[in-house]
Amino acid sequence: MWINLFLYVFLSFRIVLGRILFILSFIPLSPFRPLKERRLFESDNFTALKSDVQNRYHGTFFISSEGEFEEVYEVMMSFLEHQKSIQIFYTSPSVTKKIQKFSQQSNELTPKSVWAMPLPVLTFCPFFLRNGMVNLWSLVRGESVFLCRYDFFPEILFLKFFKKKKNIRQMTLLSATLKNKTLQGLKRFYLSTIYQSFDQIVFATQKDLALYQNFLPKLPKQSLKVFNFRAKRIYNRISRGEHLEHFQKLLPENNQNRVVIIGSYWDSDREVIFQQESINLFVKHSLVILIFPHKLKDERTFKNLKSTLQGQNWNNLVYFENFTSMKTFCEKAVPSTPNHSFPSGIYYLDFSGYLVEGYKSCGLAYVGGGFERSIHSVLEPFTAQCEVLCGPKTYRSTEFDLMEEHGEKFYFHGRHVVDELGWGFSDALQDYTENFCVKSPSLSRGETSKEFKHWCEISHGEIRSMLNL
Fold first, then answer.
1. In terms of Cα–Cα distance, which of 253, 260, 310, 254 is closest to 429?
2. Domain-wise residue ranges, the chain
3. Pick the CATH number of 241-451 from 1.10.530.10, 3.40.50.1820, 3.40.50.1970, 3.40.50.2000
4. What is the pLDDT of residues 27-39, one digit of tens each?
């Protein structure tokens, strides 16, 4: 009773606040410009989208941004491969192009299989539908409703009261996590309200499931599972081996252990990685270093890196502006002689779309962001069976916990984190090169757990069965 009352109050506050922000979005002053942009983002093409919505879909997905899209991708494909239609509501403008491309490709194969629109955050109102206001509840037409990780807007949670009226069979939360959450007082009550809105919860890690079972009340018929759907998405990309041909021309033949990828590189990673001790190891073991920057075309980041390397008498830094420049470089610089190993060097790849596939061709990966807000995806190199290092800010990453749970047979298991004061990058690199480049140059890659392998290789039919679809 108290939980339902809280949800009603939460929704009322949300509607009032939304109306106020909606009105403010029409004020032609710079402080209100983000509100105007949000309103236009939500209302753009809404009339056409509304008229195109079908009476019934098999699944409805609520996602926030690109990360959540990747998390639920294989679940959506489990619908589409079985000729089941879906609808998608997305919050962030950053994922618009990816969803539009996904929708277009799906609808070309099966007409009207995907319907997608921005989530009406600013324009949501269940009544007085004038001047561009949108009733989200009237647009949700799925038999099964899925949320991913967060964005727990009360109007979405409120759908549980309409399940019978709208023939919603089940509401599922995917990639659920309680990591770094306060599980006491009002926060505990708030989280209880959210998690009791779902018939089924799929947790990101065993640790998250344990937290839920120990600190929050579980509904009698609530189904609880642990699964990571993104592992299959990454595994499929790596297995297809897209874009790898020209990468392999850059790399030492038959010796991936001499290849190091620095993924999602930030300028804050520079002083940790490119110390003189590390440079000496690059030279000593003829390593090939591939850098994928987090921010593309960031002149400051590249300029600082170049300056640091020149100060340490390293002049072999090669910059690739795009894929074509890398391809041209490979064709000119790499002789087609047998047993040729490309010379040691640092290569700065200032273009997107190749990092995940690149992990397949390296032995050691350093994932950036650990000296910023949080590390980026460690699941990508882990799935490719690379040894993984990162900076200390792992508290927001469920992928880091997943790597700890399923990577017992990796060399660096339990000691992935490097910092500036304790175990530094040069210490880890020294350890790595001694074992993978000197003592056992043919040492095989780390091996993930059987459960993780199952996640990677699971079929879409098995996904549907697991989610009771």
1. 260
2. 2-226, 241-451
3. 3.40.50.2000
4. 999 999 999 999 9
Cβ distance 61 to 86 under 8 Å? yes
In this predicted model, what pLDDT tens digit does every residue of 353-393 receive, in sequence order?
888 888 888 899 999 999 998 999 999 999 999 999 999 99
CATH class of 2-226: alpha beta
Buried b (16+ CB within 10 A) or exposed e, 65-101: bbbbbbbbbbbbbbbbbeebbbbbbbbbeebeeebee
Return all residues near 418 (Cβ < 8 A) that are at least 6 apart.
272, 366, 389, 390, 391, 392, 424, 425, 427, 428
